[in-house]
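S.,

As promised, the nicotinamide-adenine-dinucleotide run. Input:
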Amino acid sequence: MTERKQNYVNGEWIESATGETVAVGNPANPSEVVARYQQSGAADAADAVEAAAAAADDWAATPGPERGRILREAGIRLAERKDELTNLLVAEEGKARAEASGEVQRAVDIFHYFAGKASDLGGTVKSPSAPNQHLYTVEEPVGVAALITPWNYPIAIPAWKLAPALAAGNAVVLKPASIAPGVALELAEALDDAGLPDGVLNVVTGPGSAVGTEFIEHEAVDAVSFTGSSEVGQLVYEQATDAGKRVQTELGGKNPTVVSESADPAEAADIVANGGFGTTGQSCTACSRAIVHESVYDEFVDELVDRAESVDIGPGAEHEMGPQVSAAERDSTLEYVGIAEDEGATLAAGGGVPAGAEVESGYFVEPTVFVDATPDMRIAQEEVFGPVVAVIEVSDFDEGLAVANNVPYGLSASVVTDDHAEANRFVDEAEAGVVKINEKTTGLELHVPFGGFKRSSSETWREQGDAGLSFYTIEKTVYDSY
Ligand code: NAD
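Predicted complex:
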């Protein structure tokens, strides 16, 4: 029988008030139902917020090292269940086992990192202008934080919001994406087992329009952290600011890799293929534009096409590249293939669905390369969110930089070059929150800030590292005369 998963509210696993559930299938084999989840409504969300609000003061008063101990203990429990969680992630989201296993490990590492940070919270001491005075700051939790997360990193992203929120002493309500909510519920299970007090974390599954909206607008919520598409993010940002909340939104990307005339075309093709086809192109930081100097263009294209055609596609449990997460995502990618052809780009690799028994029923697409793309084409301007790279030819580095910046997004950008001056100019002038030299656009360290420019982010707060704690804390300045 299909497992029926419940919401986690006030320390209890409960059914939603709607009485409805929704099935989540395996994108590699959609007839296989992985689990059923609560299709919750606004009333369930409100109950969760009220549980968080009731638990917030006691959790804020819990010493940081004790909060850290619970996070560390939860991290240990997640690590003990790494294989099981990896299997669940592969089954629900579809990514390849190595990628899924790395993502589960990332969640473990994030919990351990912020467990340490919980002891280091404090403030700064300054020299006062008067004698017999202490002048210092203290960092306090914001209160109740609402977290809304996407399906593409279904355990890492909830973890990178949840761990700093809890470490800083906030109570939390979390709504994971409906497409792959299973592993986020497992974070709650691990924290519950680790002794997190009732009500400090509440997880409610269901549609964004009902659960998400209630989280954003409920008067007891103080801060809203959202990761997802730029379209929904814009709406969430407006709703949250209208409701007077602190808000951060981290959104889509159209990430370039600029290939200089000094680059080795084979190395550049490795970097672009890894960034563009890894995680089936379903990373916010995925490379979707290769902007290539004319002197290395032909050789680079040959190398990239070779790599696209040699990717081993199939169910993520056994293959290098899994399916897209849903029929809608696959169809959207295939629609962009048609749009690119209509606009005059030349299909050089892929562009369709693969053939073969193992891939006939899942949401698979081929790694796809378009050449002769121009910067104004939709394929070069809009987020595709599948394994599609548009190759654009340029005649010098300045033109490459201008093309790289000429999009509404600014999440991650990389350059492949042996020229030190070009590398430094790229760092200075690339309009992106993450800039990489001789590296793929994907892949992040957990202890440095992450966030975008332009349409990729609200640009209000950064996530991860020390910066990740700032969103969840508020400073108080103390003048103490004695
Ligand atoms: P999405 O915007 O469709 O959904 C994200 C979350 O918002 C889900 O939980 C969804 O249920 C919820 N939601 C939907 N409508 C809502 C509403 N009206 N009010 C409140 N919540 C609502 O995004 P997705 O398809 O899950 O994820 C893919 C997108 O996320 C891509 O654009 C990708 O680039 C982006 N992304 C960004 C980052 C980053 O850190 N910048 C990381 C991962 C993914």
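Residues 148-153, 157, 175, 177-178, 208-209, 212-213, 227-229, 232, 235-236, 250-253, 284, 383, 385, 411, 452, 456 surround nicotinamide-adenine-dinucleotide (CB under 6 Å). The longest helix spans residues 97-120.

- D.
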